[in-house]
Amino acid sequence: MSRASTQSRLTLSASALCLAIAAASAPPLYAAPLASAQLQSLQIPAGNLATSLSTFAQRSGITLSYAPELVQGLRSPGLDGAVSVEAALNELLAGTGLIARQGSAGYVILATADDSSYELAPLTVEGQAMQQSGVAPAEGYHATVSRSATKTDTPILETAQSISVVTAEQIADRKVDRVEDAVAYTAGVRIGSSGLDPRFDQINVRGFETTMSADFLDGLRQPYNGWLSIYGVEAYTLERIEVLKGPASVLYGQISPGGMVNRVSKRPSLEASNEVEIQGGNNQHRQGQFDVGGQLDANGNVLLRTIGVYRDAEYDIEQLNNDVRLLAPSLSWQISPDTNLTVLAQYQERETAASPMLYQDGDHLTDFWQGDEYFDKLEQRQWTLGYEFEHAFNDTFTLQQNLRYGQIDTTNQYLQPDGTITNGVMDRYAVGVYEDMDSVSSDTRLVSRFATGELQHTLLTGWDYSWFDGSVQYASGPAPSIDMNAPDYHQPVSKPSSLLADQDNLTQRSGIYLQDQVRLDRWRLSFGLRRDWVHTRTSDNLYGADGKTSDSATTYQLGALYLFDSGLAPYASYAESFMPQSGSNADGPLKPTEGKQYEVGLKYQPPGSSAMLTASLYHLTQQNVSTRDPYDPLNTVQTGEQVSKGLELEAVADLSERLHMTASYSYNDPEITKSNDGDEGNDPKDVPHHLASLWLDYQLPFGLGFGAGARYTGSVYGNDANTTKSEDYTLFDASVHHDFSGDMDGVRLAVNARNLSDKQYINCQDGYCYRGEGRSLIGSLSYRW
Predict the structure, then answer these.
(1) What is the average per-residue pLDDT within 580-607?
(2) DSSP 510-552
(3) So which residues are the signal peptide here (predicted)?
(4) How far, in Å, CA of 303 to CA of 287, rounded?
(5) Per-residue DSSP letters for 338-403?
(6) Domain residue extents for the chain
(7) pLDDT band at 357, cuts 50/70/90?
(8) What does CATH list as the number for 3-126?
(9) Cα 402 from Cα 165, distance rounded (Å)
């Protein structure tokens, strides 16, 4: 046995002992080992042996030990019910050359020909204390741990905030490529407020837009310069998407009061499956993608993973492209037992429509597109490079640092009608927006774990910093007219040359924060405090005017949760946010808007199950909203206020190995509570009172499976005056898939449909109307191993 192998086993043994001690001192969260009747309904799919054994240990409640190298590289045929734990383990180990033996402390996995390995230092997996990671693959639809709410791997059941997690399996089953579509079944989330606009994700949480202000990747801000340079993220590159409801400025600084959407990248993992896939569908959809990786050394200390996507497609409006070319390599290096480094990189090119609006004739939205296929486009080229570093000094102190650099270039060109139509011929003009942006985001924190009497603390102290430097040119110019009855979408159009804006901008954001998570018997308490600073400088190259603004704010967060043995966890929390505003009034630069939320809720995770049910009540207030100055019609004052209060219900469950479910219902009662614009007491525009969704996926024993879902969006007002209204609508999604076996094990054939009935719906805001996305059909053939 090598010295490295011995050291690795000793380290694993020590870690296992720590886990066992922690489990013994903590209140039990899972039931005792399952009875034989319950084992008969337990299914585990074929796959990586280590993953299968860990899953069985968690779900059956047993303690299971094995040496990591003993199971390395092996696959399990899976489990489809068993009359006893021994029978289940034998089925999971069939064909691996390994056996299970019961000892005084649980079960141990041994090599068939070498029972002496019973004495080797094993890795212990305990069904009662299995700690997951907030960035590792989550099997099925239900994730037990989240990192977004606390920046530590904290069980969702023990977090006094409302969190929803969309796992990679949910994304794959519904075959979505946009983050916006991936979160469509999440409680409290409304998407598509501007219809089909593929330039950026349209995600509103609890009545507030989050796209521009709360766009995060791996816990780091993705900067936005106020125009169209927005970093795009393909859903296929993500391990999960976490939606944190309500203000979160204590840990993340300037942010929407509605919450944040944190995209978590896929990264190297021994638990991850390799995959290649090809797709074809309507709207000329053609796509190929792969996700492959593995270990680069014998001990598995250096892991590699690479994701690639190539898509050539359109949307149901034929002229709108949906093209992507992407490569995302990552590498993880376990430098020592106490030190780990993960490097994440991505390069992406994409092209879509620059202005997806159709022509509106009065109150009627037509099918006529006023653009030109050669000229109209949104082209973006972006790349990012970053790392996640962690070093444990000892059992008390751990240093973590995340950093990412990014660069993005954007060309946005489109043709706009000038309002003149003569004998069916529309006059147009050209618009161009040309941007580039460099950005840096970082977060450095010290995690301290210690006890003061009976209080167990996880203290987080940190500093985050983001910087972005961008430039933009906004221009217009002449364009040829178009015959609406016989449109020619391939006319020569010159690049706009008349500059309307030419700006450089530099923004720096930083904050120091402190958060303490406290365990006291069954209580889970949290307290957070933060101080933020933001500095912005704008240079107007057209008129020679420069501007500078500086803002600062202090925000707080409190939370309390009680954990019952039954799996019930009532909680209450208070949180604050702030968001800087651009522009000025007679008093100078606008002050940041401020958000405050009170929330109470109840979470329930049935012991031993893979399910989470959440109910939450919230009262969310946004202050410092701009409104008309009653004494000066040319000025605004920041005395406006908007309130959202409501109820959210959500259930996410792996009901069995074959049946998965997500369900949600949201009721929001929004109100403009303070305003000088004559709309006080009205609903804010584009905030539905009701949202509901349900998705079920079921697989028959012989490999054939079905998925079906429905999404309901209530009616909304098109302006704050509440004089126009868009009707409610329901969209249906479906899938059929077949998993092959035998010599074709790992192959899946699937057909997915979004908006199955091709429902035509529109949404209007401030006099402009937008059409929703039509039916999408995608067939796919994939192979996993």
Answers:
(1) 91
(2) EEEEEEEEEEETTEEEEEEEEEEEEEEEEEETTT--EEEEEEE
(3) 1-31
(4) 27
(5) TEEEEEEEEEEEEEE-S--PPPEETTEE-S---S-TTT-EEEEEEEEEEEEEEEESSSSEEEEEEE
(6) 3-126, 153-263, 264-784
(7) low
(8) 3.55.50.30
(9) 21
Of the listed ranges 341-345, 362-366, 624-628, the least confidently predicted one is 362-366
Which amino acid type is present at position 334? Q
Distance, CA of 595 to CA of 241 (rounded, Å): 23
* For the chain, percent of residues with pLDDT exceeding 90: 64
Tokens of 221: 């801000």
Higher pLDDT among residues 377 and 80, named by residue: 377
* Residue 716: pLDDT over 60: yes
Give the pLDDT score at 110. Answer: 84
Q: Which CATH architecture has domain 153-263?
A: Beta Complex (2.170)
Residue 297 · residue 334 · CB < 8 Å = no
Between CA 275 and CA 272 the distance in angstroms is 9
CB 532 within 8 A of CB 555: yes
Q: Quick one: fold of 264-784?
A: Maltoporin; Chain A (2.40.170)
pLDDT tens figures, 640-681: 999 999 999 999 999 998 999 999 999 999 999 999 999 999
Q: Which two tokens stand for residue 496?
A: 């706009």
Kind of pairing between the strands at 455-478 and 425-452: antiparallel
| 453 beta partners | none
| 3-state secondary structure at position 43 | strand
Q: What is the DSSP letter of 95?
A: T
Query: Judging by DSSP bridges, how do beta strands 63-66 and 208-209 pair with one another?
Result: unpaired
Instruction: For 578-614, give one letter per residue: b (16+ CB within 10 A) or e.
Output: bbbbeeebeeebbbbbbbbbebebebbbeebbbbbbb
Radius of gyration from C-alpha coordinates of the chain: 27
